[in-house]
Amino acid sequence: MPGLWQDAMDHAVILARKAGEIVRDAVQNDLKIMCKSSSVDLVTKTDQNVEQLIITSVKEKFPDHSFIGEESVAAGEPCVLTDDPTWIIDPVDGTTNFVHGYPFVGISIGFAVNKTLEFGVVYSCIEDKMYTAQKGKGAFCNGQPLHVSDQKEINQSIIATEFGSNRDPEVVAKIFSSMRKILCLPVHGIRGVGSAAINMCLVASGCVEAYYEIGIHCWDIAAGAVIVSEAGGVLKDVEEAAPVSSSDTRGY
Fold it and tell me: Which of 189, 184, 180, 179 lies closest to 159 in space, CA to CA?
């Protein structure tokens, strides 16, 4: 039986593919690049156009649904999650990658009802990989089932992370301090593709054992959270998580 929100999920997949076409076309053309909080916190007209495409289409098909979008919030819209069916959108996850032609750019669409995530869609549009998951239905990439790594030892693992856009020396020092501690556990390596959503999909795919990041936003992880969970992984708030140990790293 199709899930309760199958129609909305099918529409999300259609919109992610349309958005991917816009992104791929824009990569071939001149980009108008703008900055948000700093010179390394980038946004393009493509980010804004893709978010508007998604919101406009959803409003036409599901007029009673609500939205939390990265660019809408940046423009002053409130970031409030209610019990309403809510689309949580990162229109171009990996904008810096997009600007430089680095081939990991995701369209991330999460969907929550009663403050509970029901499905997630992440389209890695340069790779043409469509990651999907619906609560209780499993996780998939291009229709193939996903499962997190069964590796239990952190010293046999690859850990993914990102650096964020804050270049304050104290913040950078903390980032490298954390990386040093992880490397010295030791682990096999630390990686990052420049997109939170795609990093989470790599965890769901089992080729990365864990992913962590400090200062992440809801639109970065909403879709990926469903995909990781449905692939057998777990998610933890770093403020609540126990210190890293030598066991049970699966799918963080």
Answer: 189
Q: Which residue shows structure tokens 């349309």?
A: 18
- Dump strand ranges (E) for 78-236: 86-93, 106-113, 116-124, 129-134, 138-141, 144-145, 158-160, 189-191, 210-211
What's the CA gap between 196 and 86, in Å, rounded? 20
CATH of domain 6-145: 3.30.540.10
pTM of the entire structure?
A: 0.90
Boundaries of every domain in the chain: 6-145, 154-230
Give 156's DSSP letter.
G
- Identity at 175, one-letter amino acid code: I
The sheet carrying 210-211 orders its strands as 189-191, 158-160, 210-211
Assigned fold of 154-230: D-Maltodextrin-Binding Protein; domain 2 (3.40.190)
> Which tens digit of pLDDT belongs to each residue from 115-150?
999 999 999 999 999 999 999 999 999 999 999 999
